[in-house]
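To: structure desk
From: M.T.
Subject: fold request, one chain
Message: Could you run this one when you get a chance? Sequence is below, nothing fancy, just the single chain.
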Amino acid sequence: MSDDPPRRRGRTARAKGRGGQALSQPPWRQPNLVYRPIEILDAEQLERIHLGSLQILEQFGIEILLDEARDIYRRAGATVGDDGLRVQLDRGLVQETIAKAPREFTLHARNPEHNVRMGGNAIAFCMVASAPNVSDLAGGRRTGNQKDFRDLLRLSQILNAVHMQGGYPVEPVDIHASVRHLECLRDCVTLTDKVFHAYSLGRDRNLDALEIVRIARGVSYEQLAEQPSLFTIINSNSPLRLDIPMLHGIIEMARHNQVVVVTPFTLAGAMAPVTLAGALAQQNAEALAGIVLTQLVRPGAPVVYGGFTSNVDMKSGAPAFGTPEYTQAAQISGQLARRYGLPFRSSNVNAANALDAQAAYESMMSLWGALLGGANMVMHAAGWMEGGLCASFEKAVLDADLLQMMSEYLRPPIVDEGTLAMDAIAEAGPGGHYFGAAHTQARYKTAFYAPLVSDWRNFESWREAGSPTAVERTHAIYRQLLDEYQPPPLDAGVREALDEFVAKRIAEGGVATDF
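Reply: Done. Structure tokens follow.
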């Protein structure tokens, strides 16, 4: 059952928009999955995928490109093949090891009011991450840069529907790669007070991120290990390979008891078998291999089962998202995660190149796949466009409205003496109306969900207002939200320590790169 506070709908924050429309945001809260997830596969079918995954790991194995990681597997009883890279995992080892992972845990933000529950029936929505380009209606599409990166962080802070940073909303390529993580993670601390993410792109970046989050929260490393405060996404190199940076990330984050989200990116027909069952068996094998490593490094380390299987356009080879196959894959991935007793990560994705009907309906398909699949973490929940190649300010606002609507949908209606409204029915009588009824007058301000973007005026009123489109409304709303943004409070001592650490690491040259 839901542990939400007493039900209250409607507008909790109002402001006059540039187009004359009132803005509406419910307060920050995590929604709960109060409805039973959809189970597409029966128990026998799910077991066949599970057993197929174990067969892959036993018979074919997975390439592990880091010596240290292979040694960890070997010491646990895995076999390393003649090529010195391929690790084969006995099914008993896999099942025994993943059973040590926790079912639920909390991710701690520097603002405790923004702590995020992970697992159980809790859901957390993340901002778009890792896009190389950014766009808005005024400036068009452009290469990622620090200014837009910071504005997207500000937007994610002020949007209550967004619970976490999923990474860099857009890659700020005007900051050199050797120090980019230092500048960006400092911005995550100073411009937001929500949980954030560290990229696993080499051990030194992981260690820098751990120090930054430790400083931000003002805790020791012992306390940090007791209170996970940072997460990383680990993508396998499908098919059946884990590379050195990803393996460093698993080892360092698990060693410090921080959250590892193991997410194979498997595109059926390209990086995985063309059949959904085959693609999911491969996804599951890759996920289990990474999850096993987290528990071999530190039994009980927090880990999330990630599913990101979709298909490609077999005419062009381009990735497709928000498809029926994607939705089914998300729901089946949720079944697999629940089979192993692990929190589940999914995504809100689409392949649209413009903020149009395609962007909306593909996102809705993705969200239904995530929520009806029982997802606890929804990556790229606000702002994803072009199959992940672009972060859109307007799409972030549109998605925030979708997320708010989904959150409201997940709050079942109250049925009691007051809501049955017998007094109102008696007052209105046959042929009457309810506008003036005492029951309506007492409830009308908070009776229904108030949308952030939708325009409910009639045609004549809408035309008199200049016929604003949804895209134009989202643009005005995002600009207004940025105008109203206020940085969250940050202790002066924390800011000083953070700046000292970043300056020191920049002076040392940051991290080695290939540039």
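Reply (cont.): Confidence is low (pLDDT under 50) at residues 1-22. Let me know if you need anything else for the meeting.
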